[in-house]
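Sequence only, no structure available. Ideas?
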Amino acid sequence: MTRRIAVLAHGGFPDGAKTATGVLRYADAEVVAVLDRDIAGDDPDARIADHLSGVADAPIVASSADAPEFDALVIGIAPIGGGFDETWRADVTDAIESGADVVSGLHYFLADDPEFARLAGEHDVELWDVRRPPEDVTVAEGIARELDTEIITTVGTDCSTGKMTTTRELYEAAVDRGVDAGFIPTGQTGIIIEDWGIPIDRTVSDFTAGAVERMVRERSDHDYLFVEGQGSIVHPAYSPVTLGILHGSMPDSLVLCHEAGREAIHGYEEFEIPNPGYVAELYESLAESVAPTEVVAGALNTAHLTESGADDAKARYRSQLTAPVADPIRDGVDELLEAVL
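Reply:
I predicted one. Tokens follow.
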């Protein structure tokens, strides 16, 4: 039976709530409502379709108490640092007391919160902290390239440039073509969608490559594996997880994700994003001594641009990478998939 879920995205839907957007696009579940008190406050009749196209429609409500009946509440927004916003407490409490599970991709673990843990026990519901890694991860053996599978990893010029979306679109397009493909989820959104995975940004730094290698090994019976990237190698805070994924997955090819017009690191605006062509060369250089690879395609987020503006941005990005370029949502991924297959 399809699970009925409500997605919490207060103050961020859709652009500031990438987990919510990913769940709406790809999760095998019925979304009965999105929680965003700002939108609902401005328009009591607001709908998802008013703000995000290409996904199933449902109401946008101010609180979990206002949502249609649901089986699970998914926290679909993650502030920088992954903390818990206390203004969400009433929604989580109400969900638990109504008998719904709660799924969270925060670094703040709900199961360690005394109030939530007590209520979950009383109402016999599950608190799934997606970012809690398994306890038995260890260092990499450096064997991913030896596996009998082709590995494609998405990388980025910054965080929040569409790596999960690009990976998912490539994977689903490959499956639709009849390709024997697997998806490797490394972050909270992918893990929620796939219902398995290891949160690489929560593992001990020595074990990040090992965690990725472990997942790749577990799914190496597929002909192709699409590995969800995280962060960026030029990000002042998130570069370690990016390098761990690069070396742990030992990809045969890379797809570089970028947002058109973005010139500074998201949330760290004092740091400029280098020319994407330079960033592509940097990824290839860092991979060279472990497992040589190359950027074979570029994914460009042009959602905020007109059609003509998007065409100009893609032409510029294509010249910087000297590789095929497309916006996975606007254009589809056929051209990108040809490059990686």
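The chain has two domains: 3-129, 144-340.
Hope that gets you unstuck.
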